[in-house]
Design a protein that fits this description.
The protein has 459 residues and is α/β, with parallel strands linked by helices. The chain folds into four domains: 3-129, 3-Layer(aba) Sandwich (Rossmann fold), CATH 3.40.50.2300; 138-310, Rossmann fold (3-Layer(aba) Sandwich), CATH 3.40.50.300; 312-406, Helicase, Ruva Protein, domain 3, CATH 1.10.8; 409-459, Orthogonal Bundle (Arc Repressor Mutant, subunit A), CATH 1.10.10. 50% of the residues lie in helices and 15% in strands. It has 19 helices and 18 strands. The protein has a five-stranded parallel sheet, with helices on both faces. Strands 9-12-15-8-16 form a five-stranded parallel sheet. Strands 6-7 form a two-stranded antiparallel ribbon. A hairpin with a 6-residue loop joins strand 13 (261-263) and strand 14 (270-272). The radius of gyration is 34 Å and the shape is flat. The mean pLDDT is 90. Bound molecules: adenosine-5'-triphosphate (ATP) and magnesium ion.
């Protein structure tokens, strides 16, 4: 129950206010400003009803004190109807509202209710904001970008429901981890987590993989086989790469999801399943539907709760956190103490943050592994990273030097030109003819520029 403090020197007023409010809140009283301030410090009430004219220090002084102490307790000021100017003064000092005496019981109740409701909402918002700003992890997923926090929030919100979830996102963005987080936070956490990669199983086998088969259902079916739907009983079934399914399998899947039953191949007995179904895809399923490759009824059946995991290049704020998380995890795996964990140099981090990450988080994980394998004890430097990222790093460094005013315009241009020539040469394995042709310049011009900028093949 919200706490309300009544401050008035007349006990009759205190008692009548107590009677009016007692059903809706916990009522406390004080008869002067000093004891009111003590009670506020002790109880931090949600609302104060404050008489202005009192012997000793008056109500306005209390308002001043609250302000000086930066307390945001809302205050309703009680004034006699002939002292409206005092009410105005009180409002200027930060009172939330005022009521003139003698007050109407209903009007008073409504004002109190409104302020308490607003206060509760504000506190709820603050609490959520705190929780969210701290949350950089969900299961084994980490992320601090607003988009990933939104993903975390959605996962938490829907994990305990039964609705089918469709997780979309480019390869390597973390879709499988999201599915696992849904499982771990859901009601089926104690059950199995079964993942089927619909794209990796040959088309002749996918049906028996999903639904199982009876012995002798087809040539080669020498034994009874339990399908993944059944295997996931009491747990979660992840239909990964669902966009790869053949139309004939799509029909069967739709039926299974709608009726919550499956039939093993070679049998007409319906077996109920109680697994939670989560689907994932790196294709744009809506586009697949439009192109006639994916059934729209199945799409709607699966896409009850959509979760999109954005590509890493759209959430560069996550790169440093992810990179350091991977360094920590890999060190742990090698049995090193977390304390002596390896650092990323500034140039290396700048390169990681500037890179486009076509392979998303998986590529970042690999880049860190690469860096850890090459670096000595000190830390991961730019030169320990894969070549494509190193290139970004050099471009980043150039941009930074330019921003900091360390380069003239001419120098910036020649550094940039050097970068482009070097990259073309690297791509062509330092074959100058090929590099020149890719740059649409003659080999002679390329050679001249290489001499001018001092570009030499690595020894
Ligand atoms: N937010 C994250 N925090 C920590 N690790 C992550 C995160 N996202 C992805 N990873 C790691 O990156 C790798 C790729 O993730 P995952 O397999 O979940 O991607 P995916 O979207 O399912 O990829 P694909 O479409 O290729 O199957 C995994 O090793 C995973 O642990
Ligand atoms: Mg996956």
């Amino acid at each position: 129950m919200p706490r309300v403090l009544i401050v008035d020197d007349e006990s009759a007023v205190r008692e009548s206010l107590r009677m009016i409010l007692k059903g809706e809140c916990e009522v406390h009283t004080a008869e002067d400003v000093d004891s009111a301030l003590r009670t506020i410090a002790e109880l931090s009430p949600d609302l104060v009803l404050l008489d202005v004219v009192m012997p000793g220090r008056n109500g306005l002084e209390l308002l001043g004190e609250l302000r000086a102490r930066e307390l945001e307790t809302p205050v309703i000021v009680l004034t006699a109807s002939n002292t409206v100017s005092i009410a105005v003064q009180a409002m200027k000092l930060g009172a939330a509202d005022f009521i003139t005496k003698p007050f109407e019981v209903d009007a008073l109740r409504i004002k109190v209710r409104q302020l308490l409701d607003r206060r509760q909402l504000e506190q709820e918002v603050l609490r959520l904001r705190d929780e969210v700003s701290e949350r950089q992890q969900l299961g084994s997923l980490v992320g601090r970008s607003p988009v990933m926090r939104e993903v975390f929030r959605t996962v938490e919100r829907i994990a305990r429901a039964e609705a089918t979830v469709l997780i979309s996102g480019e390869s390597g963005t973390g879709k499988e981890l999201v599915a696992r987080a849904i499982h771990d936070l859901g009601r089926h956490a104690d059950g199995p987590f079964v993942a089927v990669n619909c794209g990796a199983i040959p088309r002749e086998l996918i049906e028996s993989e999903l639904f199982g088969h009876e012995r002798g259902a087809f040539t080669g079916a020498t034994d009874l086989r339990i399908g993944r739907f059944e295997a996931a009983a009491g747990g979660t079934l992840l239909l990964d790469e669902i966009g790869e399914l053949e139309p004939s399998v799509q029909v069967k899947l739709l039926r299974a999801l709608q009726e919550r039953v499956v039939e093993r191949l070679g049998s007409s007995a319906s077996i109920g399943f109680d697994a939670r179904v989560v689907a994932a895809t790196n294709r744009d399923l809506e586009q697949e539907v439009a192109a006639g490759r994916f059934r729209s009824d199945l799409y709607y059946r699966v896409n009850v709760v959509p979760i999109h995991v954005p590509p890493l290049r759209e959430r560069r704020e996550d790169v440093a956190l992810l990179a350091n998380t991977f360094i920590g995890r890999m060190a742990e795996r090698r049995g090193e103490a977390a304390g002596q964990s390896i650092r990323l140099s500034r140039a290396a981090l700048a390169a990681l943050e500037g890179y486009a990450w076509p392979g998303n988080v998986r590529e970042l994980e690999n880049a860190i592994e690469h860096g850890l394998a090459l670096c000595e004890t000190g830390g991961i430097e730019l030169e320990h990273l894969p070549i494509a990222i190193r290139r970004t790093g050099r471009a980043e460094a150039l941009r930074e030097d330019w921003r900091q005013g360390r380069l003239t315009f001419e120098d910036a241009l020649s550094r940039f030109e050097t970068e482009i020539l070097r990259e073309a040469l690297e791509r062509a394995d330092w074959n100058q003819t090929r590099a020149a042709s890719n740059l649409s310049i003659t080999r002679r011009v390329l050679k001249l520029k290489m001499d001018r900028f001092g570009i030499e093949p690595p020894s």
